[in-house]
Design brief:
It contains nine helices and ten strands. The strands form two sheets. The chain has a six-stranded mixed sheet, with helices on both faces. Strands 2-1-4-5 form a four-stranded antiparallel sheet, covered by helices on one side. The protein starts with a strand and ends in a 12-residue tail after the last helix. About 35% of the residues are buried. The protein binds adenosine-5'-diphosphate (ADP) and magnesium ion (MG). Magnesium ion binds next to helix 1. The site of adenosine-5'-diphosphate has 13 residues, from strand 2 and helix 1.
């Protein structure tokens, strides 16, 4: 679905992505994994055209991403995106947030309601909370609204940047299970960012482990474990395992940013 060829991106003196080459298969869930600052969010933002690469190309369905504003906007309607932290508009209710784009595109009311009802059911969002503002929702509910908003236009691709960051462990666990069944039901191309190995293995068909703006290895968890492409792969896995067994300590590499 996506192919990145030799993509670099720099912010001032920070080289966020370094000559990165990667392909992301259609209809599967690919998880971008890696320590904080390794370029995961930058990569996601390149995929929906929010950022343009300094060098290299990003191909979507075999064609370079458009640069012209109108074509880019059309692309974004086909690519659902939930940014890190949810990114809900605080002055709009849950319902207002999730239906915003559809209203902007002048969907008929009946179609909006139908889609909303389907998404409420899909994400198991409490319907009576739709009228609340983000500040009146729990962290888990906000994430569900962000997910519904990303799915509202029924996109081909779903880009989720740390959709489970900053949630307490129980809520996180519940949402992980829900996300997995949602991905299985929808069979969309999903690209999801996390810094948590267990979450990556649970949700992803494929893991892309990144470090300092480059891909270290792409594969399933067993590939990373049994055929590490680099000593960093083993170190990263061990550090995460150690963190998850030593109670209450966060992962040494990769707090959410
Ligand atoms: P991750 O999501 O893996 O934590 P990011 O992609 O957000 O990493 O950031 C990669 C690097 O690029 C970091 O060093 C970050 O500080 C820097 N960076 C990202 N976006 C910007 C920006 N808009 N301006 C300046 N630096 C940025
Ligand atoms: Mg990030």
């Amino acid at each position: 679905m996506y192919a990145l060829q030799d993509v670099s991106k720099r912010f001032g003196t920070t080289q966020a992505l370094r000559s990165l080459t990667l392909s992301l298969p259609e209809g599967r869930t690919t998880v971008l994994l890696g320590p904080s600052g390794c370029g995961k969010s930058t990569l996601i933002r390149l995929l929906n055209g929010l950022l343009h690469p300094d060098t290299g190309r990003v191909l979507y369905a075999g064609k370079p991403l458009p640069t012209e504003a109108k074509a880019l906007l059309e692309l974004r309607h086909r690519v659902g995106y939930a940014l890190q932290g949810g990114g809900l508009f605080p002055h709009l209710s849950g319902e207002g947030n999730l239906t915003l784009m559809a209203r902007h595109l002048r969907w008929p009311e009946a179609r909006i309601r139908e889609r909303r009802d389907l998404l409420v059911e899909l994400t198991r969002f409490p319907r009576e909370a739709l009228g609340r503002y983000p500040a009146q929702l729990s962290g888990g509910q906000r994430q569900r609204v962000a997910l519904m908003r990303a799915l509202m236009l029924d996109p081909e691709v779903l880009l989720l940047d740390e959709p489970l960051g900053a949630l307490d462990p129980l809520v996180r666990h519940e949402l992980q299970a829900d996300l997995r069944s949602i991905f299985a039901r929808l069979r969309k191309t999903v690209v999801l960012v996390t810094h948590d190995l267990a979450e990556a293995a649970f949700l992803g068909d494929d893991i892309v482990l990144m470090r300092e703006g480059q891909v270290v290895q792409q594969g399933r968890l067993v590939d990373l474990e049994q055929r590490p492409a680099d000593p960093f792969v083993t170190r990263f896995i061990q550090a995460q395992r150690w963190a998850s067994t030593s109670e209450s300590s966060p992962a040494p590499e990769g707090a959410p940013t």
